[in-house]
């Protein structure tokens, strides 16, 4: 909380530099986790299970309700900061293009983290 206050107190110019670390840092850790997960025995079993869904369950409303709640949760992270800094954007800023990029990056991050989780679950299923 102190770090967040210090960043916001310094203004928008410092927040751009901090964003480079806070945005790229988690992706470095996720890449490390993915490499470690793929090296575990049975991880490919979990990933294969993820990539071959049961189509009969796709008709269940509870599956779509869970997917929607996960999507809303994913998009809600950091939304307050986006609203705070939105007033500092340039008037010629391409909002539609930026929104599309944000949606696709969010989607790719979700798939990326799902690969890690299912790989680890596949490892756990083999070990037990």
Descriptive report:
The protein is mainly alpha-helical and 128 residues long. It contains 6 helices and no strands. The mean pLDDT is 83.
Structural class: mainly alpha
Poorly predicted regions are none
Considering DSSP H and I runs of 4 or more, what fraction of the residues is helical? over 70%
Instruction: Output the helix-strand order.
Output: HHHHHH
Rg value = 19 Å
Number of strands: 0
Q: What distance separates the N and C termini?
A: 40 Å
User: Major β-sheet, in short?
Assistant: none
Beta-strand content bin: under 5%
So what's the overall shape? extended
Number of helices: 6
Mean pLDDT: 83
Give the helix/strand layout.
Elements: H1 2-10, H2 12-38, H3 43-51, H4 61-76, H5 79-85, H6 95-127
Helix pairs in contact: 2-6, 3-6
Give the gist of this structure.
The chain has 128 residues and is mainly α.
Observed structural traits:
128 residues, mainly alpha, 6 helices, extended
